[in-house]
Amino acid sequence: MTVQPAFSRRTGLTLLEVLITIFVMAIGLLSVLTLFPLAARKIVRSIDNDRAALMAANADGSETILGFRSSVQNYFSNAANLRTPAVRLLPSGVVHFDPIGDYGGAQLYVNFTTFGSSIIPSIQWKKLVEWFTSQDEIQFQPWGVPEIGFRKGNRYSVSYLYRRNALGDSNSLDTVMLIYTGRPIEFGNTALVPLSMFSSNLDGITVLDPGTGGSASSSGPDRVLGRNSWIMDQSLDSNGNPVWKKFYQVQSTEITGLNQVSLVFDRNPDQPITKAVWVDYLFDWFDRGIGP
Asked: Is 236 helix (H, G, I), strand (E, B) or coil?
C-alpha cells in the first residue's frame, strides 16, 4: 500500500499582519534616518581631524624650511622687545606669529601678547598661501553639509605661538601651532578676540558678549561664540607672564545678564582666569614641543 505524504497547507498572511510588518519596518527606517545627521557630523569631524593633523605636519616643515625659528630666536634675544623679563631664567613673553593675518594687514591686539610681525620674510602672497594653508579643500557648513556648489578653497590655515621657557636659553624655545578651519584669509583675519571679563567660575567664565559688546574688530571674526569655541587663558602668573598652553573648549553658553554670557568649559580651569582670548575658527592646537 502506498502511503501519501501529508502536506500542511500554508495559510497566507492576513491584512493585519502585513500592516503590522510595514509599521514596524517604518519605525526602524525612521530610527536609521535620525542617525544620518549625526553620522554626517562625525564624518566631517573625522575629515577635519585628519586634515588638521596633516596641516600641522606641513606647518612644522614650513616653519623649518623658511627659517622662522631662527628669526624668532633673534627676536627674543633683543632686549628692547616687549615682555622681556629682567631675570633671564624666567620664561619670556609669548610671540604670536600669524603669516596670513600679518600679511593681510589685520588689526593685531598688541595688548594681548607680543606679536612678531617683523619676522615675516619677504614672500609673495601666493607663495605664503601655499606654505600656510591647505588648498583645494571642500568647504563644509556648520551642520556638516558641503556648501552649495561644492566651492573649494583654503579651508585649513595655521599660526604659531612661541615662548622661551627660560629667556636666556635659546634651546628652550617652545612652540604651539594653532590650526583653523574655514578662517577667511583674504582680509588678514587673525581670529583673536580679547574678552572682557566679569568673573571666573568653577567650570568656566562670564564675559561680555562679543556679539553685542563690540570687542571684535570690524574686520574680525564673523561667527558666534558658542559650543566648541576655543578660549585661550592669558592670565598672568606670579612672574607677570601670560600662562602657557591653557586652552579650554566651550561646552555650553548661557545669557546671564545684560550683554553677559556665561561659558562652561570642557574641564575646570587650573586657576581663576582674569584674562582670556577667544580664538575664533580654531579647530585644534598642536604642541610642537621644545627645540632650538
From this structure: strand
User: In degrees rounded to 5, what are phi and psi of residue 156?
Assistant: -110, 135
Q: How far apart are CA 56 and CA 209, in angstroms?
A: 31
Domain of 158, in residue numbers:
18-290
3-state secondary structure of 279: strand
Residue 4 lies in a domain: no
| Separation CA 187–CA 191 (nearest Å) | 11
108-137 pLDDT, tens digit each: 333 334 444 445 555 666 777 778 888 767
19: left (phi over 0), alpha (psi -120 to 50) or beta: alpha
Query: Tens of pLDDT along 211-243?
Result: 644 444 444 555 678 888 999 998 887 767 778
7 found inside a domain: no
Whether pTM exceeds 0.70: yes
The domain tally of the chain equals 1
Q: Cell numbers at residue 205, please?
A: 567664565
Domain membership of residue 97 (yes or no) is yes
Is residue 285 within 8 A of residue 177, CB to CB? The reply is: yes
Which residue is it, cell 583653523?
180
- Cα(283)–Cα(223) distance, integer angstroms: 14
Amino acid identity, position 205? I
In a domain, 232, yes or no: yes
Which amino acid appears at position 276 of this protein? A
Q: Which helix (H) or strand (E) holds 24?
A: helix 15-65
Which grid coordinates are listed for 291?
627645540
